[in-house]
Amino acid sequence: MDYALKINGKPVLLVEAKALGDMLDDVKAITQVVGYAANNGIVWCVLTNGVNWKVYRSMEQCEAPDKLMFQVSLDPRDPGGIPVQQLVGQLRRFSREEMAKGTLDVLGEKTFTDGKVRKALDAMMQSPPRPFVKLMRKAIGDSNLTPQQVKDSLVRIWAASGAAPVAPGQRLPPERISDTPSAIRHQAAVKAAETRRRKVEGPAYDESHHIAGKPQEVLELYHAVDRLCLSLRPGAVDKYFRSKSINYRREKHIFCCIHLFATDLRVWLKLKYGRLATPPPAFARDVPHAKHWGVGDLELRITNLAQLDEAANLIRQSYEENA
């Protein structure tokens, strides 16, 4: 059943109501409602079963499921559930008042644009095009550098910044690897260590395992926290992937763990809730005895970019105390 919500007689939000219990994951149904909204000039549409609410930006140039901006769950049993105050804030985004002010339009434009620019930069920096390399070489002002040296350097710097994680099987531009006996022994030791790790930890996971199918806003929250963690000490902080978490550490000391839910970004830090110098934000929770997938006693449930400043301070504190 479709509902068109209007302001001054103009439809601004299309709501497709499904039966209670519908999983809302049928690609055909998603494509139908998003396509109907786009064909009628309605930017925003909601697919809901009364408990779960999925908000799509219909005008985006991508596959219908990828137009998902954010998702809200009213089910108190949902492991990805968020506190009532945050839940109300998410739902208020498509209220009459906020739609009239264009709040969702501004947020959607920023979120989807940032995602597109980031993806374009990732692609460009992993294989820098010749005009860009030429421009960089000119800006550097050192004619002794060859275009290939500049290109390789760009790829290394981008990968080291954490902006473009190296995918399984992908290699950075090769340095001149020595074929001396010591170098060969080192490479063999690294390979053996990886084999032992897989026997103990099971199959390897990568970033795609965690981000697949997540709403655009949650992805942008993840990338913002990811950049922050890796920038705390470039080259010294690394991340590794488990089935349920993305973990950040310096040497062997974990200071931050992340899990992407459909409704929010969950962050765990090695901090004691009762020992924080300032009162923790409303989206923080003390979880020393609760089951979770990260390392640490402090949990952050981040649902929007406005919460990142407070979260960033706590992430830095966890890094400083544990690294």
Structure in words:
By secondary structure, the protein is of the alpha+beta class. It folds into 3 domains: 100 residues, no CATH class; 71 residues, no CATH class; 116 residues, Aspartate Aminotransferase, domain 1. 41% of the residues lie in helices and 19% in strands. It is built from 10 helices and 11 strands. Strands 6-7-8-9-11-10 form a 6-stranded antiparallel β-sheet. A 5-stranded mixed β-sheet has the order 1-2-3-4-5, with helices on both faces. Helix 5 packs across helix 6. The chain starts with a strand and ends with a helix. 27% of the residues are buried. About 4% of the residues have low confidence.
Question: What's the structural blueprint in terms of helices and strands?
Answer:
Layout: E1 2-7, E2 10-17, H1 27-39, E3 44-48, E4 52-57, E5 68-73, H2 84-92, H3 96-101, H4 103-126, H5 130-140, H6 147-160, H7 181-201, H8 207-211, H9 216-231, E6 237-241, E7 246-250, E8 253-260, E9 265-269, E10 284-286, E11 298-302, H10 308-322
Parallel strand pairs: 2-3
Antiparallel strand pairs: 1-2, 3-4, 4-5, 6-7, 7-8, 8-9, 9-11, 10-11
Helix pairs in contact: 4-9, 5-6, 9-10
